[in-house]
Amino acid sequence: MNYRLKGILIVAVVLASFGLVALAGTADYSPATYNPAVGEDISFTACQSCLSYGAVSYNWDFDGDGVYDVSTPDPTVEHAFAEAGFVVVTLRVDEGGGRYATCRKGIYVGKTPLFAVRKVTPDKSGSVLVEITVSAYASVSAVGVEETLPIGWQWEILDAANALTKKEGQNLQILWMNPIEAGETRTISYRLYPSIGTGSPSLAGTIAGYAPELVKATICGDLNIKK
Question: Three-state DSSP class for 101?
Fold first, then answer.
């Protein structure tokens, strides 16, 4: 037996001993918006086609504390956030027999002059397409994005949307010299090429600018590289 397969079997045995078995498929969901108002009811819909089997329950953690607040057989739920700011919403899909899959995404609650959403799309070749859409709700100057890239992964800028780009250590930095006006958007894209043995790491980044005072926010949307 090769060592890779042996390692996978060992992990499966350990998980099974705790009554948990990771799914072959992946969990995913879509919020009605990544930037809801405080107190606004918005829907979250789980992707049913991503999974290997039929889901038994959908479990939602809406405040990032690791405790699931809602458990339901319905793939769609509604939720309203009571406080402004960035929050990680986690979906865990249970399919019975200890099988499960999880998905984490970032949501920014409340008004902000500058907002960004990340979309991660894996390719059959193993590479990953990352798109970040920046939206300005006021005139913002010196807008910059900084992404922390996974260790060992190679990267390639596909479309910088007329911005300057450079890499400092593990950080990809993108800067627009011209202001982004209210109502305008910019979408940048880059591709990641995995290194052997790196698994499915997280992505993290921030967006900042002056409107006219400094504003800085965590990038919302996908937080993990999906296989």
Answer: strand
Give all domains of the chain, ordered by start, each with its CATH number: 1-111 (2.60.40.10), 112-227 (2.60.40.1170)
Could you give the angle at the alpha carbon of 73 between the alpha carbons of 69 and 76, nearest 5°? 75
- Predicted TM-score (pTM) of this structure: 0.85
Identify the bridge partners of residue 108 per DSSP, sorted by sequence position. 86
From 59, 120, 41, 43, select the one nearest 95 (Cα to Cα). 59
Supply 194's token pair.
């995995």
**Interval 105-163: pLDDT, tens:** 999 999 999 999 999 998 888 899 999 999 999 999 999 999 999 888 899 999 999 99
Radius of gyration of the chain from Cα atoms? 19
H or E stretch covering 107: strand 99-109
Q: Is 29 exposed, middle or buried (0-12, 13-18, 19+ CB in 10 A)?
A: buried
